[in-house]
Structures are given as C-alpha cells and as structure tokens.
Design goal:
The chain is mainly beta and about 100 residues long. Helices cover about 5% and strands about 50% of the residues. The strands form 2 sheets. Strands 1, 2, 3, 4, 7 and 8 form a 6-stranded antiparallel sheet that branches. A two-stranded antiparallel ribbon has the order 5-6.
C-alpha cells in the first residue's frame, strides 16, 4: 500500500494554534472624485486585488488576516478584515 504524503503548507504556530498562509484575490471598491459621463460611469468596475497573509479567522460574513506577529506574545499586526462576499479566491500557499 502506497501512502500519500500530505502537502505541507506554510504556517506559523502561535499559542499552540496553527495559522495558514494564503494568497487572497478580492474585489476592492474603485473610486474617483472627478466628473464622468454616463458612458464612463458605466465602465467603472471594482479593482481585483491580491493580498498574501495568514488567516486568523474566517466565517460566513468576514475573513480576518494578519501579516506580522510578535514571536514572544499573541500580538498581531498588518491586519485586515474582508467581507467574505468580496473574496473571489483563496489559495493556501505550499512550502
């Protein structure tokens, strides 16, 4: 019997909890304070952005991420909260 190796994903362990690293593609509102014609306004679309971060928490409404953390304490930095409906794709990053 051949055993399949589990894919190893990039993660950090903080206070006995693993946080996995993701590439997140999401819709970001586009804004412009200038004057526009009707045709120009119809062509405006949200920007498609990509962020890479550790997933702190995810539920049906929001996904919370962090990119920095203290190695001695449970303290997080570079945090974002995304409405889950704005996320197009989330991909776990392999080692």
């Amino acid at each position: 019997m051949v055993r399949r190796k589990k894919a190893k994903f990039r993660h950090v362990k903080i206070a006995d909890k693993k946080y996995y690293f993701y590439s997140i593609k999401f819709l970001d509102p586009t804004g412009d304070s200038g004057w526009h014609t009707v045709d120009e306004l119809k062509k405006l679309t949200p920007s498609i952005m990509v962020s890479q971060a550790y997933i702190f928490h995810k539920d049906r409404k929001f996904t919370t991420t962090f990119a920095s953390h203290d190695s001695n304490e449970e303290v997080f930095g570079d945090v974002n909260v995304y409405p889950t409906t704005c996320i197009i794709k989330m991909e776990k990053i392999k080692l």
